[in-house]
Structure formats: C-alpha cells, structure tokens
Specification:
This protein is of the alpha/beta class. 35% of the residues lie in helices and 18% in strands.
Length: 271
C-alpha cells in the first residue's frame, strides 16, 4: 500500500487540509472537537486496505481555513461537501466521531444523494434537553490563558479522567490540536449544542452503523436515543473498553465493525 498523501483543497470556504490513503470506494472521516485528521492516524491505513480513506481537518480545525464564530454543524457539513467536490468525489460513506458524527448526520440530511452510508461513533443526540444542559457552555476544553502556563495543565487535566492509561501519548496529541492556531474548542462544542438534530435526523436515508465506546460517559447514553430517532433501523456495536479517544485507542476494533458494514463498494462512486 502506498503511504498516506497530505494535501490542501481549494474550496469556497478557503483551503481545507486533508490526508488520504488507499484506493477504492471513498470513505470520509470526520473528527471530534477540537481534534484534526490526526485522530484517525491509526484507523486510516486499516480502512485504506480496500477504500480511498480521506481524513479531513474540518473548517477552523487543524490546518484548515478558519471561519468566524458562531460555528455551526451546518457550516462544517458545507465544508466537508466542498472538500469532496474539490477531490472530485461525488458520493462517499461518512464516518464521524463525536462532533464529526453530528456533521455526518447533517451531510446525509442536506445531500442524501452524496452519502451512501453513515458510521456514527460516540455521536451526541442534540435535542432540546441536550441544548438546555449545555446552555452554560461546555464542561471540558475551556481554560483561560495564564502567564505561568498553568492553563495548559488545566486543559490536560480536564480530559485525563476520560483517557485510558497510559494517557500521556494520546493527551499530547489532543493538546497539540486544541492549541492549533485559530482553534476554539469551546466554540466547537457549542456548535453541537446549537444543532437541532431532532429536525434533521428524520431526513437520513443512508444505512447507519452506530458505534459506542463502553467507557464514554458523555456519548454512550445517546446510543439508544439515536437509534430510536433514525428513520430506519441501524446496526449497533459497542466497543468494549472504548473511551473518548476511541479512534486512536481501539482502531482495530473499529475497523472490524466498519469494514463489513460498508460492503457493496459498487454503490459508492467517484466522478
């Protein structure tokens, strides 16, 4: 297999950064807040064995062009579709983790002809109760800069309880993305809180695989509610021992669920 290729795509939203590997039916990977394509470092080559796997930095994250607040899931979805346009990809399967899952739902609702399958990993169900519970802002990834740099440790400590030991290698990657120029983690989380998923999820036509992480206290409770809200019965799998950084922590287990689900590659085409 050829090594992964990094690139920038010119879009109406500015240049969007991405990495891709493999050949075959395309699958687009969308990260959580405040991560980047790096969240899929371990998963990308596993999916690339039979697919054209594309992991992007969503608008305002990683190395992609920034946009002014307020950020919205709808805007992130426009960016993801613009990247596919720039890469001459008409249709793709879409895998989204946490925030990326909400973006994947919006893509499937707004452009159903372009999304052949959805993998929703640790995706929140952002209904009125979710929005009410987040009205005061997110409970993680929010720190005020300090002259002595202690805010960096505070950022680390907010995530550490939800990361598997040894947590330092994964937290290093998280902090790197959270501190990228132009990234506002709190605003990314608020984009989810603003999203009226209850209005959009009934429009999803694509088959869906719901992935849950067994030890993710934030997203796992939403699994049943997502399943009930989808218009067609999804497949569901819970990854044993999985936590918030599921894509990095359990890449092999994720691939073992995703690859059989995608199937029927002839249904996913490029132009």
């Amino acid at each position: 297999m050829r090594p992964a290729r990094f690139g920038y795509a010119d879009t109406p939203l500015g240049q969007l950064h991405y990495v891709e590997q493999g050949e075959g039916p395309p699958v687009l990977l969308l990260h959580q807040t405040p991560r980047s394509h790096d969240e899929f470092r371990e998963l990308l080559p596993l999916l690339a064995a039979g697919h054209r796997a594309i992991a992007m930095d969503m608008p305002t994250f990683g190395r992609s062009a920034t946009c002014p607040p307020p950020h919205t899931i709808e805007h992130f979805a426009v960016g993801a579709l613009a990247l596919l346009d720039a890469l001459s990809v008409h249709g793709a399967a879409v895998l989204g983790h946490h925030t990326g899952g909400a973006v994947a739902i919006e893509m499937a609702a707004s452009a159903p002809e372009r999304v052949s399958a959805l993998v929703l990993s640790s995706t929140p169900y952002t209904d009125p109760s979710y929005r009410a519970s987040h009205a005061a802002g997110p409970s993680v990834d929010v720190v005020d800069p300090t002259e002595d740099g202690s805010h960096l440790l505070a950022l680390w400590e907010q995530r550490r309880p939800y990361y598997p030991a040894p947590s330092a290698p994964l937290l290093d990657r998280f902090v790197h993305d959270a501190l990228a120029p132009g990234v506002d983690p709190a605003e990314g989380h608020q984009a989810c809180a603003r999203y009226r998923m209850e209005d959009r999820i009934p429009l999803v036509e694509a088959p869906v695989l719901l992935l849950g992480a067994e030890a993710d206290p934030f997203a796992l409770p939403a699994l049943e509610r997502l399943a009930a809200a989808l218009p067609t019965l999804p497949r569901t799998a819970v990854i044993a021992g999985g936590t918030i950084p599921l894509m990095e922590q359990k890449a092999a287990e994720v691939a073992a669920e995703v690859l059989p689900f995608l199937g029927s590659p002839q249904q996913i085409t490029t132009v």
